[in-house]
Amino acid sequence: MGYRRILACFLAAALVAPQALAQPHEQRSSNLRSLPETLNYERGEAPPPDYVLGKEPRWTPVTLGYVTLTFSYGAPLGVAVANGFGNHTAWFALPVVGAFRWNDGRCEDLVKRGEDSDGCNNPLPILLASWQIAGLSMLLFGYGLPKKKWVRRDLALSATPLPRGGATLGVSGSF
Q: How far is the C-alpha of 41 from the C-alpha of 45, rounded, in Å?
């Protein structure tokens, strides 16, 4: 007998609730949709109605950081893979320091064989390390100091704790 009451309540809520709630929500969302998605943030400015403060990464340094880091780290890593990580090229898998360790190992081999050690004054490790540091710095700047913007309330995402145990967060938003 109890399941019939639950089923009747469920059906009544499913049939009646959408019709009762549809009109105010549609009016509200159409009003919000006529507003711009984001507005520029000015320090000390009062929040505009129907907007919340949001943050966005600085995309120019982030993009440049990924490109710089991809080429300065990816190219030597490709050389290491092509050499089967032999001949001291395994050091290229370690960012920044790896290029210097590769050069040190190469120089030790040259000295052991009694060959000319003039090749030890190679500028490649300094170039690779400085490009990798520049790429990492641009990524840290782009993600670490995001731009503030006013985001329309219906587009804003917020982190909410999930009811499960542990330290988990979920992202929710209404679209």
A: 8
Rg (the chain; Cα; Å): 29
- E strand intervals along 70-156: 147-152
Mapping DSSP to helix (H, G, I), strand (E, B) and coil, where does residue 51 land? strand
**Of residues 54, 65, 57, the one with CA closest to residue 144:** 57
Please give the span between the terminal C-alpha atoms of the chain, in angstroms, as a whole number. 39
Give the tokens for residue 172.
Answer: 């929710």
The helix (H) or strand (E) run that includes residue 53 is strand 51-56
Closest to 122 (Cα-Cα) out of 97, 139, 104: 104
Instruction: Write out pLDDT tens, residues 40-91.
Output: 888 888 888 888 888 889 999 999 999 999 999 988 888 889 889 888 888 8
Tokens of 157: 């995402």
- Predicted TM-score (pTM) of the model is 0.61
Asked if residues 160 and 139 have their Cβ atoms less than 8 Å apart, the reply is no
